[in-house]
Amino acid sequence: MTTAVRPKPTSGLGNTDTEPCRLRAGRTSSWRSEADLEPKLSRSKGASSAEDDIPTVLPLQLVLVQGLDRLPVDEGAQEALRGKLRMLEADPGRVTTLLSELSAHLLSINSEENAICITFKVFEEIWKFNTYYQMGFLGQCMENLLLDQKFWINCLDRENTGIEIFIKEETMNLMYKGLLMQEGSFFASCSSNQIFDSSTSGSDLYLEKGDIALFEPPFLGSGWTVLSLSDGARGTKEKPPLEPVSPFYEKCLDVVLLVATGTCVAVEEYDGNGPDELSFEAGDRIIIVGLLVSCFQWFLGKRERTCDVGLVQTHLVKPTDSVCESTDIFLNTEDRTLVKLEQEKIKEETIALLRKTYQTDVGTIYQLGKQPVQMLDEELKHKIVSLVQDSCGKLSPSSDICISPDSKDLETDELWDLPHFTVCSENDGTSPDRHHALLSFLGSRDFQPEFNCLYSSYPEFLLTCFHGHADEEELVAYLSVARETAKKKRVLWAQSRICYLLGQMCASRSKFSQARVYYEEALTIPRDSFSDMSLQAAIYTNLMFIYLTQKNTEKYLALSERLAALLMGVPDLISGTEDPDVMKFVLKKAILSHNKPAEARSCFLLAKLHLKQGEPANAVPFVERLQMLVDKLPGECKGTHSHGYLLLGRLYSDQGLPHLAVSSARRASFHASATLSDCLCSVSLLLENAVQLYGSTTPAQVATFLIRAASLAPEGAECRLAHVHALNLSWLFHEHNLPARALAYMRAFLLGYSSASGMNQSEVTAALIWVAWLCIRSEQHRMALDVLNVVLSSMPEHCTTQQEGVVHNMRAIALRRTGDLRQAAESYRAAMEICEEFEDQHNWAVVLANFGFLCFRATAKHLGEEHLVQAVELFSELEEEEGHKMNFISVLLELGQHYISQGYCEKGKIYYEWALLIAIQSDQSESQLKAIRHLCHLYRQVCPNEAQCIIYSEHQLALVRRTGDRSTEAEILEWISQLYLGLGTERANRSALECTKQSLGIFIDLGKKRKEAHAWLQAGKIYHILRQMELVDLYVQVAQDVGLSTGDTLFVLEMLEAAGDIFFNSTVERDKAVCFYRDRALPIAMKAGSVRTQLRLCNKLAELLLQMRDYEDALEFAQTALDLSTMLGDHLNERVAFHRLATLYHCQGHFEMAEHHYLKALSLCPTPLQFDEEVLYYARVYQILGDITFYDLKDPYDAAGYYHLALAAAMDLGNKKSQLDLCTRLATIYHNFLVDRELSLFFYQRARGFAADLNVRRINLAPDQNLRIPSQIHS
């Protein structure tokens, strides 16, 4: 994957530098030019109110893109990105941390617009942020934050997929300008040629377009004040057109021959004023040594005729035809890297780290094959056979593998033996030639490697080489005598170096004036050549520091020009002793001259200096700026681009900036200049920061790095890397439940394997066993058996190994899944015998469990139970640190499930709880979740216990929150809410409300509108239960609004009906349901043609209006329900409709119609009757019919018939009370109306019998007894 940020090259803000090298007035003396060293403008903190409004918010627009054209992906993926932003919107802690690392402050997150709004408080923050933006880090950092591990795995098939960030650069530039104005005066370049009114003398100040000057904003109504950097002149103007420069610089003006190489010609004669200056005559050809930079006064030249080398003033030469412009920032023999990468050491360490991180125990530990075909292709099968044969023939049992010592423990660089000098006083009577050895050592004409110690920081050389002195005064006296001796003997080079040492000693004791005398003497000694450039640079650097300290501006500037010439002409001149403030003058002059190559080289040298001085944090901004400049400079410097990003990644990682470190590693790996070692270093950086960024030691992002490394390795030359590459990628896909893709990588590796690749027999065997396990996971069991049979055939016949048991166990798993249970049992038995032989309890427990699963498959439940119990016993005896917990937990859960299926719930519960305790003890979240799911199922469906279910569900919720799975968290909260509601107490109802609100917040964050609407409605329902009526309507209304926002008519209809159900199923404000059913839901259902919904709504309306005694409206909906039921052929609803119509007609006094519809309802009842409820229905309806015909229609004869049928049903039910009532009615009818004494007496006696049983004292047979109609029966 490539970076997802596309910065525009014309950014007005550009890049910025660090605190020490910021182009800011009055910050550090190292930036002073001729004008800078004059008194500065005073810093003002106020700005004119007339200035344009400065924005304070910078929106970052995030878009998910893919492909080389960086086009947006489909809307579904964009919605997923918005979902991630919603979660961050609710809990912005992670994005706040990231933006803090990027030097910005979070203001808000707008998930609907895919935007993050940020701001900056101080100038330093915006230039750092802009640096990261231009280097392409922003998008990659956002990818690390927003994209999960599954995304990275899937992205391997879709190149150039990532997040692209768009920024309104005009807004950022205005914010940049505003922050500059807050801080006071700032540097800017003129947008056009302009004249400023003079504030110092009579003549006006003229600046051309592109000139950089120091501007001070208006204060208390004054105009802008400007300070020219070329001559220190000041001027004022009302509102000058200007563009703030970056702390390095903003634009590069077109200047001819900025940096050149080749040969030039002297235009006039020059006689050098010192040994460092080159003397020449007019017309002499001078070869440019290193680089000639036009903005500097001096360059290093070599007189072609005499081969003398020295400093040449730039204005004294003119170019020839051989002079050519150069954009390279490195010299020919220069080390172009800031730090050295030991290629082989990096390779070895990274491969070892990868092996350790992605190691698998498949080749040594038995796999547990619980109960949940393809053939091996011939090419791979033959390859595996030949591979095993080659490895066996290559390594005989008696052969030894010789391991060479680790190269990192051997010192390859020779240590120079420095001479030792004894310091003696004059009274010691020693030889007058006591300084001979020192002068001989220091008198070399050319630079010697031993002098590195001499020119390094004080007092390394003095402490190492001089002995016998009591204090520094004796050493100074000794060196002073040596200086005089060298001067007398004309040993000029020794005299110069002794003067340098004396200057160092004086400077270390803050005797700067005395040190300056020694340094200046070292410069003026007339030496025969200009050959020791390191000495010259060391003297320049230390003398410049003293001039700067003593504010000797003229000499400081003159000497800095000479130092610049050396730095541009001599490779690897940085020793680490230089003062950064001195060297930054070179950088500043390059910036003011708009000289990009010179600026890049200055950044390179300053970065190298800070690294040598052990100040990596100070080196970071220079490396960042160098990387940005290298992008714009063609030439050989491109080859170091990847190396620079690697160095940045290491520096970021050391500073605790993991997002930037990983982003730098990615840029390093995927840059065109990347090498294999660069990619492997990037892998190390990623793994080093993985836990902090992703919470995992094995992030999926490493796959892209490994694929890139494999593509850079020479074909067939890096077998070990290819092996690790295949193993790691297959392991990653295996961990993400993609075994088929894992197998594909191992297959490709094995097909490309050759016998000369260097893998030993154990590595080959382990790789094949891993392939076999991947085949089993991919449901390619026949293929797995072929691989395992090849491995098994290659093992010694008379020498059993533990690995052989691994193969037998795996064969048995594959055989069981192919259905060959007999062969599987034999393989398990062989594996058991090997475990018993080696007393391998862990693997023995695993194979016993596997055999138990096999018995369950063969329906030998009792035998399987015995083996699982034995496995549990062995597991429980194992030591804590043996890493068997996962398998132990799986066996316990399987055994518990077996007991529950057999009806032993208490036993099953014990094993579930045992598994949970072990998972908690070993802090294995996934295992805890598995055990809790089993326990929740037990207490929810097998042995219902809401309180226990709540306890385990809440623990499950805590575990899921640790994983960050918000969707599952919301679902669990919903379930817990339902459990609390089931308890029925007010406290439980309030707990249910809290859970519902939490799930509602998550659904809002995830953008799940349907779930959100249901949650709003559920909250309204709970408020209704709690009788907080003022909130019910509010929550119900919001639920409807969210439902409408989905645009799904059927879903809106569902929500309206559910809203009505809240009131319909209550005893309070039931009339509100009519509004939802009749006025809202029913019209939509009719328009949508949802007949079932119409039927359901009509039934509810008919029942509700009946209870409200609105019989006319209820009759209309009941008739509609009957028509719809008849049309659908739904006999149950048709019967209900007839019954409800009969009830309504009865209530309205239409007794014949009521009788008719009751009889129609009865006719639709199934025959024969199957359930007691149906018999009870018969008894009640026939009794109602009897009452209607007897009391309302005054037909005792028909009434007696209905009562007889009701009595038969009551007798079938054995309901004595109903029989008492019916016998009383029948006795009354036969006694008073039908005048049948015999039947009257019969039913009277039966009624007396039921009365005695029910303790009813008196039976009234009066004919005018008014009996109440039984309550209506509703279906």
Automatic annotation (TrEMBL):
This is SH3 domain-containing protein. TPR repeats lie at residues 1135-1168. Residues 259-322 form the SH3 domain. It comes from Denticeps clupeoides. The lineage of its organism: Eukaryota, Metazoa, Chordata, Craniata, Vertebrata. Gene3D superfamilies: SH3 Domains, Tetratricopeptide repeat domain. The keyword Glycoprotein does not apply. The keyword Transmembrane helix does not apply. PROSITE patterns: SH3, TPR.
